[in-house]
Write a sequence for this structure.
C-alpha cells in the first residue's frame, strides 16, 4: 500500500499541481523550447505513475497477474479476508485504464482521419509552386500559410500571402512551417490532445492542451528568427490573417489574437540571454519526473513474486 500511495501522490502532484505551476512560470515564454521539454516530462511522468499504479495492483498478491500465474502452476490458494478489496481495486483501475485508452485512441484516430481528409481535399484545389518543391499555392485572397503533416508533408501558402509578403518575410514564414514539420510538433499536439480528451479531469492535461500550441509556435518563431531575424518574422506575422488551423495543421499566423500578440511581443523584445541554468534544471526535473515512477514500479514488480 505504501508503494501504491506513493505512486498516487506522484499522479496528484504532476497531474494537478505541476500544470498550473508551469502555466504561470515567468520563464516559459522566454525559453519556449525548454518549457515544451518540461511539459513533456510532467505529462510522461504522470502517465508513468498511473501505469505504475495499475502494475502494482495487478502484480500484488491479489492482483490479476498473480492470479494468472497461480492458475498456470495450479497452486490456487485460499485468499485472506482483505482480498475482496484488492479485487475491487483491480476492477476499478482496469476499467478506468481501458476507458482512458479507448477515449484517447478514438480522439487520436479522429484527428488523423480529419488530417488525411484535409490533405486529400487539398490535392484538388492547390497548385504546386514552380520555385519551391515543398510548397503548394492556394488561390485565395486571404493571406494564410500553414503546414499539413501527412505521408506527403505539405506547406500551403495562399496567393494572398504571396502578394503581401516580401521575399524575406515569405522565407521566414516557410522556415517557421518547416520547423514545425522537421521537429514533429504536430505529433506532440496530437498526443497531448488525445490524452487530454481522456484525462480532462486532471488540470495539468487541460493546461497542456491550452499552453503547448503557443509554446510550439514560439519555438518555430525562434528557429525562423535565427536565419531571417526577429523583426522579419514579426513583420510577416502581422501580414498573415488570423484563421483556425486545419485538423492537425499549424498555421503561421495562429488562430488566436491574444496568442499572436504574445508572439509579437516576444519577437519585438531583445533576445533572451542563454540561461543555461534554467535549461539544465528543466531537463533534470523532466527526466526525474519520468524516472522516479518508473523506478518505483520496476522495483516493486521485480520484488514481487508472480508465482507461488
Amino acid at each position: 500500500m505504501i508503494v501504491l500511495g506513493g505512486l498516487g501522490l506522484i499522479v496528484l502532484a504532476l497531474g494537478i499541481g505541476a500544470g498550473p505551476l508551469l502555466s504561470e512560470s515567468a520563464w516559459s515564454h522566454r525559453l519556449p523550447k525548454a518549457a515544451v521539454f518540461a511539459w513533456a516530462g510532467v505529462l510522461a511522468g504522470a502517465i508513468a505513475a498511473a501505469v505504475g499504479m495499475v502494475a502494482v495492483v495487478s502484480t500484488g498478491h491479489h492482483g490479476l497477474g498473480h492470479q494468472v500465474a497461480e492458475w498456470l502452476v495450479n497452486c490456487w490458494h485460499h485468499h485472506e479476508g482483505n482480498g475482496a478489496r484488492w479485487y475491487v481495486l483491480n476492477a476499478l483501475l482496469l476499467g478506468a485504464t481501458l476507458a482512458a485508452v479507448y477515449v484517447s485512441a478514438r480522439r487520436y484516430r479522429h484527428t488523423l482521419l480529419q488530417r488525411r481528409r484535409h490533405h486529400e481535399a487539398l490535392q484538388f484545389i492547390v497548385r504546386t509552386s514552380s520555385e519551391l518543391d515543398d510548397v503548394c499555392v492556394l488561390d485565395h485572397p486571404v493571406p494564410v500559410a500553414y503546414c499539413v503533416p501527412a505521408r506527403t508533408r505539405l506547406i500551403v501558402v495562399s496567393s494572398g500571402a504571396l502578394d503581401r509578403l516580401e521575399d524575406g518575410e515569405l522565407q521566414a514564414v516557410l522556415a517557421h512551417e518547416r520547423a514545425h514539420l522537421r521537429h514533429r510538433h504536430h505529433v506532440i499536439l496530437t498526443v497531448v490532445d488525445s490524452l487530454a480528451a481522456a484525462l480532462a479531469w486532471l488540470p495539468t492535461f487541460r493546461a497542456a492542451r491550452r499552453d503547448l500550441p503557443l509554446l510550439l509556435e514560439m519555438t518555430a518563431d525562434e528557429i525562423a528568427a535565427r536565419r531571417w531575424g526577429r523583426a522579419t518574422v514579426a513583420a510577416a506575422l502581422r501580414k498573415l490573417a488570423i484563421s483556425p488551423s486545419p485538423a492537425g495543421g499549424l498555421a503561421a499566423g495562429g488562430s488566436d489574437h491574444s496568442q499572436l500578440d504574445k508572439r509579437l511581443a516576444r519577437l519585438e523584445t531583445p533576445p533572451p540571454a542563454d540561461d543555461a541554468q534554467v535549461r539544465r534544471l528543466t531537463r533534470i526535473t523532466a527526466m526525474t519526473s519520468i524516472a522516479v515512477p518508473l523506478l518505483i514500479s520496476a522495483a516493486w514488480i521485480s520484488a514481487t513474486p508472480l508465482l507461488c
